[in-house]
Amino acid sequence: MSAIRKLGRFVEFSVFGDPVTVDWSIISDRKELDLMGSHLGPYCYPLVINGIQNGDYPTEGVVTHQLPLQDFEEGFELMKKGDKSLKIVLVP
C-alpha cells in the first residue's frame, strides 16, 4: 500500500489462506485509493483448460495431488489441512 501513489488504485487479485489485516486509513484518509477486487471470469476457463491440455501451461509444482474421483473425501481432507497441498485434481 505504501508504494501506491495518492489517488491511485489497488487491485486485489488472489485468495488468502489466512486472515489479512489492512490499514484502512491508508486507503480512505491518507491516499484516497480506489480499491478493487478481481477474479477470473468464466470466459477464461476454456482458454486455461485448453492450455493445460495441450501443454502450453505446465502444472508441475501447482498440482500437488491427483486422486481417483471416488477418493474425493481424502482430497477434501488434504485441502482442509492445507500444509502440503496446493491444487488437488480428482480424476474421473
UniProtKB/TrEMBL annotation:
<dbReference type="GO" id="GO:0016491">
    <property type="term" value="F:oxidoreductase activity"/>
</dbReference>
<protein>
    <recommendedName>
        <fullName>Alcohol dehydrogenase-like C-terminal domain-containing protein</fullName>
    </recommendedName>
</protein>
<dbReference type="InterPro" id="IPR050129">
    <property type="entry name" value="Zn_alcohol_dh"/>
</dbReference>
<keyword id="KW-0560">Oxidoreductase</keyword>
